[in-house]
Structures are given as structure tokens and as C-alpha cells.
Write a sequence for this structure.
């Protein structure tokens, strides 16, 4: 049994692959943005206690951990889609929403510090 990343139907136009690309792009933006904010304003600006402790230990460790989780997710979801495509698709939509909100939060912080128009 195989699953196409681009499985589409009337319910799920756009396909899982687009969502996975969005997860990867938002995750990378979040990592770069968080690194810049932590290096500029300290680890107190990071809301996630696990990532805060990793950044306190070493920013390289934090980046490696985040990238490892991203790679694991990008490998795991297509396998999960073989068993339950709807759950994998909807779950990935939720992950995109969460990372989108993180990006919005970063942009708000940038704006508050006068780094955006």
C-alpha cells in the first residue's frame, strides 16, 4: 500500500505535501527568528521551557534538537498517512496553524522593538 503526498480529494484540496512544505518553512523561520531574538534579548524571550533550557545550554544544541524533530516529523507523517490520511492531514494542518501563530508572535516582538515598519 502506498500513499501519495499529493493525495487530493474534494475535502483535501492542496495535498499533504504542501502542508509539509509549510511546516518545514515555518519551522525554519521560527528557528532563525528565535535564535536572533534570544541572541539579542536573552533566553527569557523564549516561551517554550524546553527550548529555553536548550538555548541556555547551547544555541547549537537547540538548533540541532529542533531540526531533528522537524526531520522526524517530516518522515513520520507520510507513514502515518498510510494508515489514516485524514488524521495525518488534519494534524499537519494544526501544526501549520501553531507554527503560523509562533511566526505572528515573533513579528509582534519585532514590531514592539521597532524592527518592523
Amino acid at each position: 500500500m502506498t500513499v501519495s503526498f499529493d493525495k487530493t480529494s474534494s475535502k483535501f484540496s492542496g495535498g499533504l505535501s504542501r502542508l509539509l512544505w509549510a511546516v518545514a518553512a515555518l519551522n525554519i523561520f521560527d528557528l532563525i527568528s528565535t535564535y536572533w531574538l534570544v541572541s539579542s534579548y536573552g533566553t527569557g524571550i523564549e516561551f517554550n521551557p524546553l527550548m529555553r533550557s536548550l538555548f541556555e545550554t547551547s544555541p547549537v544544541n537547540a538548533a540541532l534538537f529542533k531540526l531533528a524533530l522537524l526531520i522526524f516529523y517530516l518522515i513520520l507523517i507520510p507513514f502515518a498517512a498510510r494508515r489514516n490520511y485524514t488524521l495525518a492531514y488534519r494534524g499537519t494542518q494544526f501544526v501549520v496553524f501553531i507554527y503560523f501563530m509562533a511566526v505572528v508572535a515573533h513579528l509582534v516582538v519585532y514590531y514592539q522593538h521597532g524592527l518592523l515598519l
Q: What stands out?
A: The radius of gyration is 16 Å. Helices lie at 15-41, 49-57, 59-83, 85-112. The chain has a mean pLDDT of 86.
